């Protein structure tokens, strides 16, 4: 039975080396947490989003353990990688959706309204991703805090422990990063 962080870290390392048994055990123990991360991402999406949390987890898993499996230092590093992967999948999905052709005049008007809404939400998601990438370039630690707090759902205490900084620093940097992102995303 896997019941502690070091056991999961060992499984991650073995899975990254290609051990199938380690991958199978790992999936049993991390799927729930990955699903929660996916749900957090999808909660910001439109209600009729066609990508489901399970599909997002499965696609992320394939990318994480595909031909170039990562070499994760520990459990926290893996979850940050998983969150980044899910974010990239959703950005790619949003870009593909916003590139869809406009409906022709013979289609119903409500379909046009739906596609307009999809394009607007996709644009917001893409703008947030672009702002996040700029934040990562100018302040990597704040970007790590955003990934851990927002994308992975860690608490202030968990984020501080993961990064080896004080809770006060996490709170200050989290507040600053959120304000910065909001100023860049607003049009």
Structural features, described:
It contains 8 helices and no strands. The longest helix is centred in the middle third of the chain and has 30 residues, at 109-138. Helix 3 packs across helix 4 (75-98), helix 5 crosses helix 6 and helix 5 (109-138) packs across helix 8. Residues 101-115 have low confidence and may be disordered. The chain has one domain. It has helices at 5-16, 20-43, 53-64, 75-98, 109-138, 140-151, 156-163, 167-185. It has 187 residues and is mainly α.
Task: Output the keywords.
187 residues; mainly alpha
Report the strand count: 0
Domains (count) = 1
Strand content: under 5%
Tell me, rounded to a whole number, the average pLDDT: 77
| Number of helices, where a helix is a run of at least 4 consecutive DSSP H or I residues | 8
Uncertain stretches: 101-115
Helix content: over 70%
Give the termini distance in whole angstroms: 51 Å
What is the molecular shape? globular
List the helices and strands and how they pair.
Blueprint: H1 5-16, H2 20-43, H3 53-64, H4 75-98, H5 109-138, H6 140-151, H7 156-163, H8 167-185
Helix pairs in contact: 1-2, 2-3, 2-4, 3-4, 4-5, 4-6, 5-6, 5-8, 6-8, 7-8
Give a nutshell description of this structure.
The protein is mainly α and 187 residues long. It is built from eight helices and no strands.
């Amino acid at each position: 039975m896997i019941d502690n962080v070091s056991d999961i870290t060992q499984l991650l390392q073995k899975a990254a080396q290609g051990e199938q048994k380690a991958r199978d055990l790992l999936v049993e123990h991390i799927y729930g947490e990955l699903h929660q991360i996916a749900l957090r991402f999808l909660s910001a999406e439109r209600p009729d989003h066609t990508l489901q949390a399970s599909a997002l987890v499965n696609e992320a898993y394939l990318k994480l353990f595909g031909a170039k499996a990562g070499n994760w230092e520990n459990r926290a590093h893996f979850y940050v990688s998983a969150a980044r992967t899910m974010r990239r999948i959703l950005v790619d999905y949003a870009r593909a959706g916003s590139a869809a052709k406009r409906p022709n005049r013979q289609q119903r008007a409500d379909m046009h309204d739906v596609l307009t809404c999809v394009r607007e939400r996709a644009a917001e998601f893409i703008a947030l991703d672009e702002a996040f990438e700029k934040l990562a370039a100018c302040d990597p630690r704040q970007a790590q805090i955003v990934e851990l707090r927002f994308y992975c759902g860690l608490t202030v205490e968990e984020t501080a422990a993961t990064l080896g900084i004080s809770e006060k620093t996490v709170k200050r940097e989290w507040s600053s990063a959120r304000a910065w992102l909001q100023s860049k995303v607003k049009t």
